[in-house]
Design a protein that fits this description.
Blueprint (H helix, E strand, L loop, with lengths): L1 H4 L1 H20 L6 H29 L2 H32 L4 H20 L5 H11 L3 H9 L2 H31 L4 H28 L2 H21 L7 H25 L7 H26 L5 H21 L1 H9 L1
Helix pairs in contact: 2-3, 2-5, 3-12, 4-9, 4-11, 8-11, 8-12, 8-13, 9-11, 10-11, 10-13
């Protein structure tokens, strides 16, 4: 859709859907669970459409080091928001009704619509011409051509590992800190804010690392940090305190952040003209499949047992390291650099 209608239009349509559905949620009653779920699904759809369009716009407007920097900053914001949300949400709900959250989302959506309309340029004539030529391939063929690119699949895999472990963190933290240790929601949010800051700082540092190290070294270091964090969590699993989770997770967060910040530019490097399809496939896979695998971990593993949680992180990163050692694409990209 983004390649057909234009990235700016899709971003605006997504934001309008997000804003309207947020406003609709703010007006429903507490017993209207079906309407709540329907509007939430619509809200998620709108947000996803906007995000994919922005992801594609970044790919079309930047190259090389600037592309890496742009995706790193975007990932920093994306990681900061869900991790910091518990603290912000707790303060809002403590002083206002629950639906105030969605009223705020609706207002932010409207502000974003105005901001994009005024500041974001539309696709250029050359881009529209390229997009038109690309759409003649057909919907399915465009996605198959993206999936057929081994470079895309390689970096998508590593991004998926990092995204899955990040999403799993969002499940583990409340279950362990609030569920097992009985930490209050406000205190939980304050603890979790440390992870949010790590994600944001790591995302801002990632472009510097891309200048100092080749992509193979960056991925190796990132996965090694996740293994190190998992080992520390395993060692501290007998200590039933908040820092037995937060300290290892800070290390894991650094690894995930660097990996998530460095992967998109490399995965989408060959798709400037087909940026919409490639970005859509990339984001749908990392977020969609990542959420499904994370849910599977939650189903199969006792997420209040840090030994089992550490095994999830450690084994996942070690399997990714095994792929890392035999992957030919990484070797080729390193030689090019």
């Amino acid at each position: 859709m983004a390649d057909t209608l234009g990235k700016k239009k899709i971003a605006l349509i997504g934001l309008v859907i997000f804003s309207v559905s947020s406003w609709m949620i703010s007006g429903i009653e507490q017993d209207e669970s079906l309407q709540f779920l329907a509007y939430r699904a619509l809200q998620s759809f709108g947000g996803s459409a906007c995000f994919t369009a922005i992801f594609a716009l970044i790919r079309m407007r930047f190259e090389g080091a600037m592309l890496n920097k742009a995706y790193s900053y975007l990932n920093g914001i994306l990681a900061f928001v869900p991790v910091s949300a518990p603290l912000i949400g707790a303060y809002i709900v403590e002083n206002s009704a629950w639906f105030t959250l969605f009223s705020i989302m609706a207002v932010l959506g409207v502000v974003s619509v105005v901001w994009i309309m005024l500041t974001l340029p539309a696709d250029s004539g050359q881009q529209k011409s390229n997009n038109s030529a690309g759409t003649q391939q057909g919907f399915v063929k465009r996605y198959l051509s993206v999936l057929g690119n081994i470079r895309f699949r390689t970096y998508l895999f590593f991004a998926l590992v990092a995204q899955t472990l990040f999403i799993y963190l969002l499940t583990v933290a409340p279950m362990y800190l609030m569920g097992k240790l009985g930490v209050s929601q406000i205190l939980f949010g304050q603890m979790f804010m440390a992870i949010a800051i790590v994600f944001m700082v790591g995302s801002f540092i990632a472009p510097k690392l891309n200048q100092l190290m080749n992509i193979k070294t960056i991925i190796g270091v990132s996965l090694s940090l996740i293994v190190l964090g998992a080992a520390l969590m395993f060692a501290m699993s007998g200590i039933h305190a908040w820092y037995s989770l937060i300290m290892p997770m800070v290390i894991v967060a650094v690894g995930c952040t660097i990996l998530l910040s460095s992967s998109p530019a490399n995965a989408l490097a060959d798709f400037k003209e087909n940026a919409g399809a490639a970005s859509g496939l990339y984001t749908a896979t990392t977020f969609g499949v990542g959420a499904l695998v994370s849910a599977l971990f939650t189903k199969l593993v006792d997420s209040t047992d840090l030994v089992q949680v550490a095994m999830v992180y450690g084994v996942s990163a070690l399997l990714a390291l095994a792929v890392f050692t035999i992957n030919k694409t990484l070797r080729a990209d390193t030689q090019k650099a």
